Amino acid sequence: AKIKQVEFVKSSGRAKDCPKDHRPEFAILGRSNVGKSSLINSLVRKKEVALTSKKPGKTQLINHFLVNKSWYMVDLPGYGFAKTSEAARMDWSSFTKGYFLNRNSLVAVLLLVDASVPPQKIDLDCANWLGRNNIPITFVFTKCDKTKGSKGKRPDENVRDFQELIRQNYRQHPPPWIMTSSVTGLGRDELLLHMSQLRNY
Ligand code: GTP
Ligand code: MG
């Protein structure tokens, strides 16, 4: 499950332009500031994998990173920016939906959810949309090292609340989930192992 090598392959403006070699891939999705770049850097054990210079809300591209010359990690535009207009949101959704609905080599979406805040509607909506479209997801809770979140709840309490809402709404079996911290490295090995297991199914 070790990551030995990572190379940036390309940025694509449309699902159609993504690499066509059918290697298995994992999409990394979540709100801006949820810790996407940090998670990728933590998995790769490098400070910069060319992802950290992105400005919040500015990423409009699908970025493919080839890992160990055998599978892809895909960085997607974040959602839920406070300053994003409704029109821009619609753009995001048609663009990203095109990717999700047409990408046969997609093994799973890693849906990043900030464990330091209470459940957010936009994350639940996103999970439900993916579920309705039969796209497999794994919840990756980020920032689990934070001792206290905004409303005074601990990360494990926020995660429990989120899981409860998912159980109520989700039409399939509740997806697997992993608690992580890119500060302490919590969940790193578990997530890598999980991804290697999914690739081999
Ligand atoms: P965009 O690029 O804007 O979409 O954000 P992002 O999802 O890539 O988030 P990024 O990795 O840039 O992290 C956002 C902020 O959260 C940074 O200040 C990070 O240092 C912090 N952060 C990310 N992961 C963790 C974590 O596991 N624990 C803590 N305490 N902070 C984190
Ligand atoms: Mg980022």
Care to describe what's here?
- By secondary structure, the chain is α/β, with parallel strands linked by helices.
- It has a single domain (6-200), classed as Rossmann fold.
- 33% of the residues lie in helices and 21% in strands.
- It contains five helices and seven strands; from the N terminus they run ββαββαβαβαβα.
- The chain has helices spanning 36-44, 86-102, 121-132, 155-169, 188-200; strands at residues 6-12, 25-30, 62-67, 71-75, 106-114, 137-142, 177-179.
- A seven-stranded mixed sheet has the order 1-3-4-2-5-6-7, sandwiched between helices.
- Helix 4 links the parallel strand 6 and strand 7 (177-179).
- The two termini are 14 Å apart.
- Guanosine-5'-triphosphate (GTP) binds next to helix 1.
- The site of magnesium ion (MG) has 4 residues, from helix 1.
Ends distance: 14 Å
Strand order of the largest sheet: 1-3-4-2-5-6-7
Q: Any idea what the CATH architecture is?
A: 3-Layer(aba) Sandwich
N to C succession of SSEs: EEHEEHEHEHEH
Determine the CATH superfamily: P-loop containing nucleotide triphosphate hydrolases
Q: Which strand-content bin applies to the residues? A: 15-25%
CATH-defined fold name: Rossmann fold
Question: Any key phrases for this structure?
Answer:
single chain; 201 residues; alpha/beta; Rossmann fold; 7-stranded mixed sheet; 5 helices; globular; binds guanosine-5'-triphosphate; binds magnesium ion
